[in-house]
Design brief:
InterPro entries: DUF1481
Pfam families: DUF1481
Oligomer: single chain
Strand order of the largest sheet: 1-2-3-4-5-6-7-8
Number of strands: 13
Protein name: DUF1481 domain-containing protein
Radius of gyration: 18 Å
Order of helices and strands: HEEEEEEEEHEEEHEE
Strand content: 35-45%
Shape: globular
């Protein structure tokens, strides 16, 4: 994937609306749902302290995680970071972190069947170096956090959809026209960005039983790089 997250500067800080927050608070009650009700390939997302996380996940036939891609786009400045997690029999096997713009930066961690590190490397602009034990534990913690959040959001039917806005019409990446039920805050945000755009805007939003929530508005076509099931 190239140039993921380009043009997300000047995005105001967003929080979950009460309707989506309520959905997340009651997710512990839906743990009894059968695995068969959840498709193998899903997409979701959430608001972090300083940016937006978009998650794409595919499970194996035993409903265990197989691959998760987490795309983190900061609100102001900074580079979009892409984390790819690969699993074997539900256990983390490979972690690869890349940057959308700074291609000379990255991290790779590989784990054996016992969960021990079998390969580690941090790529810096002019050299490669090993990771410290604290670095490894931090990356493992982040991987666990992403996996748990992905499972929680899926259980609550919080889904990520991406698409485009053009002349007042919103279309998903699948080519379907969409009518969103947005909060007043999101409507104002989209209207301001649309007033400064002569062509089209890329959109990313969450849908949940409680309503829709806008995540990103950018001068970028998210559909060009959006991960597909075959990519995972």
């Amino acid at each position: 994937m190239k140039r993921i997250g380009e043009g997300v500067a000047n995005i105001p800080l967003l929080f979950f609306t009460p309707r989506l927050a309520t959905a997340l608070l009651v997710l512990s009650l839906v743990g009894c749902s059968s695995h068969e009700e959840i498709p193998r390939f899903t997409a979701s997302g959430y608001v972090a302290d300083q940016g937006i996380n978009r998650l794409w996940r595919i499970d194996n036939a035993q409903h265990q995680p197989q691959t998760i891609i987490n795309v983190y786009s900061p609100y102001y400045g900074g580079d979009t970071v892409i984390d790819r997690y690969e699993y074997q029999q539900g256990q983390l096997h490979l972690l690869r972190q890349t940057h959308a713009e700074k291609t000379d930066l990255g991290v790779m961690l590989r784990f054996d069947n016992e969960g021990n590190v079998s390969f580690m490397q941090r790529q810096l602009p002019e050299r490669r170096e090993k990771l410290s034990s604290d670095d490894i534990e931090l990356y493992k913690y982040q991987a666990s956090k992403v996996l748990n959040l992905s499972s929680t959001l899926r259980a609550g039917n919080v889904e990520l959809v991406q698409g485009q806005w053009k002349q007042g019409v919103i279309t998903s990446c699948a080519g379907q026209p969409v009518t969103l039920s947005l909060s007043v805050r999101s409507q104002v945000w989209l209207a301001k960005r649309a007033s400064r755009s002569n062509d089209r805007l890329g959109l990313a939003w969450l849908t949940a039983p409680e309503g829709d929530e806008l995540l990103l508005v950018a001068n970028e076509d998210f559909c060009k790089w959006e991960p597909k099931e075959s990519d995972l």
